[in-house]
Amino acid sequence: MSAINMGSTPDQVNALVEVRQARQSVLSRPEPLEVWAIIHEAALRSSTADASVMAGQCQRLLDLMELPNVSIQIIPLDAPPHPGMAGPYTLLGFPESADLDVVLVEHLASALYVEDAADVSVYGTAFEHLRAHALPFDKSADLTARIKQEHR
Known about the structure:
By secondary structure, this protein is of the alpha+beta class. Helices cover 43% and strands 16% of the residues.
């Protein structure tokens, strides 16, 4: 967090970490949100963090993969070119109406909310392509477990 928030004090960074941790509680509350995440294998193989930290991150993903409302797939290093190469985004879907769907694109100093239905549709199509490039759920879990062991 301190590498991303370069001008922040240690107290501000700690507050940001606490916010991110609190946001995760929506996954295990009585009526949890449904999340489908697609993560590139390179993110799990980061050499910028302490190996034990990365092993812990992999274990957290493995724990989340056990939740019925969480779907996680890994895009392997050898995957062909795919839309995720343009950068990360979050597609927020709402059950009441497809017109409410929004895309969140976060940057270092700002965030962009894409609300135009045609533009949101482009991101939705890109997500479908990413799902096709990613490993199936069981193979994603196996790869995550192997990478966790490599970090030990």
